Amino acid sequence: MKFWVAATTVVIATNSLAASVGFIEIKGAIGPATASYIARAIDVAAKRNDACLIIELDTPGGLLDSTKDIVKTFYAARIPTVVYVAPSGANAGSAGTFITIAADVAAMAPNTSIGAAHPVQISPGGSGAEKTDDVMKQKMENSTVSYITGIAEKRGRNAEWAKSAVRESASITSEKALELKVIDLIAKDMPDLLQQIDGRKINDKELKTAGATVSHIPRSPREKLFQLLWRPEVMFILMLIAMYGIIGEISNPGAILPGVAGAIALILFLYMSTILPINIAGLALIILAVVLFVIDVYSPTHGVLTAGAIVSFFLGAFMLFDRAVPAFRLSLTYIIPATVVTTLFFLFIVGAGLRAQRLPVQVGRETLLGKTVSVISSEANRAKVFVEGEYWDAVSDTPIEPGQSVEIVGIDGLTLKVKPKANTGTNYA
What we know:
Layout: H1 2-17, E1 20-27, H2 32-47, E2 53-58, H3 64-76, E3 81-85, E4 91-93, H4 95-102, E5 105-108, E6 113-115, H5 134-155, H6 159-167, E7 171-173, H7 174-179, E8 185-186, H8 190-197, E9 201-202, E10 205-206, E11 213-216, H9 221-229, H10 232-251, H11 257-273, H12 280-298, H13 304-319, H14 332-358, E12 372-379, E13 382-387, E14 390-396, E15 405-412, E16 415-420
Parallel strand pairs: 1-2, 1-11, 2-3, 3-5, 4-6, 5-8, 14-16
Antiparallel strand pairs: 6-7, 9-10, 12-13, 12-15, 13-14, 15-16
Helix pairs in contact: 2-3, 2-9, 3-4, 5-6, 10-11, 10-14, 12-13, 12-14, 13-14
């Protein structure tokens, strides 16, 4: 009887440990926010004694440094990691290939794909489309091949195919991946996945996942914000806000709000540009467009400079992010509207503001400067003049006489400074 109670206790304890599995979704480009999220999720799942952590993956690729951080996290994880490329139609491209192969269990849904892991030379200030010298390209490729080979061999997966994914950008379907032993299984949905990995031994630990509760681990507010910012579209919008705000403040001094918004957006853009690769040539073209727009305000060229600015801005926006990697491509649905809005902004807001600053003063005492008036009465170099319906005291460096025409050259308090002017017989007051 005592033995039966003890055995029952063991069974209950074992079942309680296998009662749930952790679950997260990774969609979009792989970056620092992704690596941070996965690391935290593994820790949370381990502390909850989850049987494993399932990562549903759908990505076109991402940064190699962040991918390496994820792989290191997998190696050091206290619980098994399962990467599940899903749903149907999903892709584990480029960085996703490394992540899938590095997991303890690699699974894919039907009609998904994996591969195309050839390295692209991307770094802040450079572009994947720019050609690096052959030696550096070869070194980078060899290093990446060695890296993915090591991952595949550690997990007992097809290292030869992994090499071809890097060297030849090979890409295959889930069915072919299972045939080539790139992955461990194909699961049509989550219950099927849990059923198939049940009983697998990972690091001397047998998974008990059949019928387990799937417990989602959400992103923290900080991770959500970081993931939102780490996107070409968001960075592009931040750049536009910075440009509109700062230039709007310069062209319309005293507005304050545009300047503050522009400064905050600029700081965020500069911070994110240290992570997401920016093409200097694209940024230079955008700056050139701004210069051309402004010059055209001061030196009208019948639209020639404006046309050049529009072309420069469009090309700069098109080249701003690395287009060799799908994850970093900026869609034309953002570029074209941004070009139109920027053109209108400079033509009607900045142009109007700068032109207004160049207009002569229309109100206030400064409007008296340059006017020609007649002296009403005088004594030596002091006089009374009548201008715009008011009598003013006036002083002159030289003696002036009643009826003489004088020009207002300055204002000192309530006294005008005047100088004699050849009398043309016309009173402009």
